[in-house]
Structure formats: C-alpha cells, structure tokens
Amino acid sequence: MTETRFDALCIGNAICDVFGHVEEDFLQQESLVKGSMRLIDTDEAVRLFDKMGQTVRISGGSAGNTAAGIASLGGKPAYFGKIAEDELGDSYYHDMNGTGVYFNTPRLRDSKPTARSMILITPDGERTMNTYLGACTEFGPGDVDESVVAASAVTYMEGYLWDPEEAKKAFLKAAEIAHQNGRKVALTLSDSFCVDRYRSEFLSLMSDKVVDLLFANEHELKALYQTGDIETAIAAAKETDALTALTLGAEGAMAISRNETVKVAAQTVDNVVDLTGAGDLFASGFLFGLARDYKLADAAELGCVCAANVIGHVGARPERPLKNVATQSGFEV
Amino acid sequence: MTETRFDALCIGNAICDVFGHVEEDFLQQESLVKGSMRLIDTDEAVRLFDKMGQTVRISGGSAGNTAAGIASLGGKPAYFGKIAEDELGDSYYHDMNGTGVYFNTPRLRDSKPTARSMILITPDGERTMNTYLGACTEFGPGDVDESVVAASAVTYMEGYLWDPEEAKKAFLKAAEIAHQNGRKVALTLSDSFCVDRYRSEFLSLMSDKVVDLLFANEHELKALYQTGDIETAIAAAKETDALTALTLGAEGAMAISRNETVKVAAQTVDNVVDLTGAGDLFASGFLFGLARDYKLADAAELGCVCAANVIGHVGARPERPLKNVATQSGFEV
To answer: CA angle at residue B221 from B217 to B225, to 5 degrees?
Structure first.
C-alpha cells in the first residue's frame, strides 16, 4: 500500500463565496427557497449581484471548506477543484495553500471565470446560495491525480459534483483508484435539493459499495430515504454497509452503522452569525478524527467543535486555528 | 448656492481590504509596528500575501468606508477614488453603488491593478495594514467632478491622499471648489505615521483655513501637536479655527472648538473582533449628524454608535443597515 501522505483528499466545486446580508422579504421577492443552493447562469448572476448590497468575499466550496478545516486542525489534506487564471482564482489558490492544503489542480486559461456563489444571509443566520459554476464545469477525470488519491486515507467528495457533467466522471474515477489502493471513499449529500436531483444515483453509490462513508444533515438524510421522519431515515441508514455521519444542528451529531450508533451533543454557541460551512467543518473534524483513529464518538464530537467555531462569524472557513480551538476543548490534536 | 445633493463627498484611496488573522509574534518576525499602515511595492505585496493564511476580502479604504457608512444610515454620500477595470475593481464598484453611494470616478484601463491592503488582525482586534496603492496612484485633479463637490454639504478627505503625488493636487482642487461654493472641507488624519510624514503640511491646511473640520484619534492628535499628553493636544486643537472631532476608543469621543467642547461616552461592545474602520464609521455618524443639523453631542454620539457596530465583525463596512442600528439607539435617522 502507498504511504499515507494525506489525512483526506477532498474533491469539489471550487467556488468563491460572495456574502451579503438580506432581510427575509428579499428571498420572497426573488422567489428563493431559504437554505437551498440553486445553479444560475451568467445573466442571473449579474442581475442578482446588482441587487445585493455590501458584500464580503471568502474562498468557499463545500469540500474546499472541509479541506481548509482539516489543515486548520493541523492535519494534512489535499484538494482537487477547478479554478481559472483570474483574481478570484488567485485568491482561492492562495487561501488553500496558505492554510496548508495540498492543491495543485491545473488552472483554466482563457475560458470560463472562477466560480462564485452569492450567499444571502438572513437575520436567522440561514444562507441561501446562488451558484454560478464557471470554471468548475471544466473539472474532469484528467484532473484526478492518481498518486494523490492513492496516498490519501480517505477521498471525500461532494454530491454537488453530480451537477457538472465531467465532474461526475472524475468522482467515479477517483473512487475506483481509492478502492484499488485500499482507501475509503466518502460522499457528502451537499443539500436536500441536490439529493432530490440525484437520489437514485446516490442510493446506487451506496448499494454498489462505491461509497463507504456518508455525510448528511437531517434534511438530506430524510430526502435520501424519502421520509418525513428522521428515525425512519436513521433506521434505513443502519441497514446500509456504509457508516453514516449525521449532523442534527443544535441537537448535535450521530455516527450510524450496522454495528455501532453513537450520538454526541452540540457545542454551545452564544452568537450564531452565519450557518454557512457548519456541515463542511463538521466533516473536517470527523475525517480528522477517523484519520487519527479516534473513537467514533470522539470524532463526532471534534466535528461538533469545528462546526460550532465556524458559525460564529461570516464565512465557512476558520478564522483562528482550529488546532487551538480543539485543544481548548480538550482534544489532543 | 448649488442645491445640496449629497450629505458628504468622501475622497480617498480606493482599496480592497484583504484580512487575515495572525498571532502577535508574526508582527515581530516581520518587523511590523502594530496599528500602523505602511506602503509596500509589488514584490513585498506578493511576498507578504504568500505568508498569510486564510483571507477575507472586503471593499475598504478609509473614506470609502465612511461613505458606505453614511449610505447605510440612509444618507446620501458621494465618493471619488480610483479603481481599475479588474475583478477587485468590479467588487469595489458594486459595493459602493450597491449600498447607495454615488461613485462614478473613471476606471483605469490596461495599467495598474486596483489597490489592495493586507490587514493583519492580532488577537486583541488591532490591525496592521500593508497597502499596495496600485491604481490609486493615478487618481488626480482630472478626477475631481466639480458639480459633485459643489453639491456636497462637506467634502471629506483622507490624510492618506498625501501619499500618491497627484492625489494631493486633487485634494487641494476639491477643497478650493468646495469653499468657492460655500461648502465645508474636512480632513481625517488617517494614522499617526501619516501625520509624521506630513505634519507641517497638515498644520498649514489648518492655519490657512483650507480645512474646517478635523477628524483624529488620540494618537494622531498627539502626533499632530507633537505632545505625549492628550490634554495638551486638546488645548492646542481648541486654539485653531477648525472644529476637531476626536475619537478616544473605549473612552468615547469629543468635539472641540473655540466656542464649544463636548464629550460623549463610547457604546458598550461585548465582543471586539476587529477594530478596522472604527474611526471611519465614527466619521460616518458624525458627518451624517452635522448634515442633518444635529447638536454636536448628538452627532458625536451617532458616530460612537456606528463605530461600535463595525468593530463586532471582520471588515470596516457595515453588515446590517446602520439605519436600523441607529434607530434602535434612539436616533431618528
């Protein structure tokens, strides 16, 4: 087996987040479903951006956030994602490498710009995402560096990769290489609307044992198993061969498998500013924990610590080193 | 007299802020003076950026922040500043116009990029700025739109405008037009190092009555009058023909003139995250108050309300409408 160089390889749509605060009625005027992510074209991206007030720009992308979180914990992550040779791409590249993520996907020249997502934050901290995929649509199997996959303890991928056509092929190629090298493959369901778009494919990934580890929140797991009852969804998750890591917001998180199910409480957060990245950073802590052979409950608890940290400020990337945050919570990282 | 279309015209270096959190020893390793702003060239900008970890990008620039704050209060500000035709410039243009600032300075093509400042935030919330001026060095007298100056109740300018050579000429031209039209001229001292660079010129602006209204914090006023004692500096300010608005951090603020001196307390802030913009947003509230014929003490208090709001999050621009914040504090804006 190849030497393990990376705690996790994260693969996803490389997106720059553009945050703006809006009131509740803005979502109604724009007919947007709170908490959803929708894909928009250039015209809509321009139109909506013009209607936003003051904005803040931070590198994002679900799997990118997870990779940054693992680096912030002191772990060794790698990342695959497609950015362009433009200013947003420069920022994205910098933020990844500056925090210690191995990120070397060839950049796109003279084609589509780096992807951006306009994230509307309502007063309750919920976020509604409007994503222009740009350069991400050019990510494909050719961008999957086999040696990195082989050297990563787990390859963690977004459900969102099902949106750009070629990215799906890259997902399957990476999963195959990972398993050929005795590595694990993880899928995050991304959001419940993403599950609605690709439910049967995601269920096949589970039954075909392409995916060993599933990340979901309550809405996503209920959507996957088409039930309104979370207990029914948990029972369904227990029947699969995969380990399911389930986040429950203020209720904490669970790790569910045939043999063992654990539940941990959420961390207390005084001032929830922006829920963006809570799930992504939970995955950082959980994946880091698994890579370091933590018990399931401890890995889930570290996930909750990371998630709690990120929702106290705007943006889905850690501001202060998570290594310090985790140490203060009693973890030896 | 021309009809008043703008509560204030703000003129300054149009800069995109790039924020990153660093530990105290980072400043020592880089031989940086905490709380200062220094100008850097392209090589140094690239070198320092590479050493920063995760970053956040928000439109900034001292006078730009002040203009955005006035708009956020529901006022009518205008802004002059030089940006390029690039992504950072697009963001800057959007943020200004999206929040209601009249901003129409011709953009620079095929030349220097939009300016950026790398702002290092230490755990105490202090910020140390490293500014690459880029397109700002091309701002000059030709960018001063006479009709806008004539229609603005006050023209408010940064001391930082003394750094790019042509910007200084633009400052003096704008001041002349303002006075020809019976308008007021305000100067903010920007930072104590800026005062050290241009002390005699700033003092001449006061004695020559080019400046009617001076904004300073404690360090800047002491630097201007070359004293270590704030009471001595206040006494000196009282002897000038200008009105001096003095911010005192946690001690609040004062308005000082020959005839009247008032002091107001600071607002309580539970969680100071980043002091960037406190002075800029104080100026927003104070200028808005003066334009609306508030009493001096009320204008100073509105300034403190705006300053308190901005230091609770990263970045020098309001996240939520200051109009709502001011209303909650009992102001009718």
So the answer is: 175
Low-confidence residues of chain B: pLDDT under 50: none
Q: Give me the residues paired with residue A87 across strands.
A: none
**3-class SS at A57?**
strand
**Hey, is A146 helix, strand or coil?**
helix
Q: For the whole prediction, is pTM greater than 0.90?
A: no
pLDDT at A290 over 80: yes
B122-158: b or e for each residue (b if 16 or more CB lie within 10 Å)?
Answer: beebbbbbbbbbbbbbbbbeebbbeebbbbbbbbbbb
The per-residue pLDDT of chain A, averaged, comes to: 94
Secondary structure of residue B279 in the 3-state scheme: helix
Q: Given this model, what pLDDT does residue A155 score?
A: 98
Contact A49 B314 (CB under 8 A): no
Q: How far apart are CA A19 and CA A115, in angstroms?
A: 14
Read off the DSSP letter of residue B104: -
Instruction: Output the pLDDT for position A242.
Output: 96
Q: Give the domains, in start order, of chain A with CATH numbers.
A: 8-328 (3.40.1190.20)
CA distance A98 to chain B (A): 4
A132 pLDDT band (50/70/90 cuts)?
very high
- pLDDT at position A333 is 81
SS3 call for A192: helix
Picking from B119, B277, B39, B130, the residue whose alpha carbon sits closest to that of residue A319 is B119
Task: Encode B5-39: b = buried (16+ Cβ within 10 Å), e = exposed.
Answer: ebbbbbbbbbbbbbbbbbeeebbeeeebeebbbee
CB atoms B95 and A55 under 8 Å: yes
Query: Which residues 54-83 of A are in CB contact (within 8 Å) with B?
Result: 54-59, 68, 72
The identity of residue B328, as a single letter, is Q
Render pLDDT for B248-275 as a digit per residue (tens, 0 to 9). Answer: 999 999 999 999 999 999 988 877 777 8
What is the ipTM metric for this complex? 0.81
For residue range A141-174, what is the model confidence (pLDDT) as tens digits? 999 999 999 999 999 999 999 999 999 999 999 9
Instruction: Compute the distance between CA of residue A242 and CA of residue A131 in angstroms, rounded to an integer.
Output: 30
Measure in Å the smallest separation between the Cα of A138 and chain B Cα atoms: 21
Using a CB-CB cut-off of 8 Å, the residues of chain B touching A98 are: 50-55
What stretches of chain A show up as alpha helix (H) in DSSP?
24-29, 42-51, 62-72, 87-99, 146-150, 165-180, 192-207, 218-224, 230-238, 278-291, 296-310, 322-328
Q: Does A47 touch chain B (CB under 8 A)?
A: no
B124 touches chain A (CB under 8 A): no
Q: What's the token pair of residue A165? A: 């056509």
| Tokens 């956030």, located at residue | A65
pLDDT tier at A319, thresholds 50, 70, 90: confident
How many angstroms separate the Cα of B275 from the Cα of each of B72, B127, B272?
Answer: 19, 7, 7
Residue whose entry in the numeric block shows the structure tokens 């109740």: B153
Q: Say whether A314 and B314 touch across the interface (CB within 8 A).
A: yes
A235-272 as b/e, with b when 16 or more CB fall inside 10 Å? ebbeebebbbbbbbeeebbbbbbeeeebebebbebeee
Alpha-carbon distance of A123 to B128, in angstroms, equals 31
CA distance B309 to B311: 6
The three-class DSSP label of residue A63 is helix
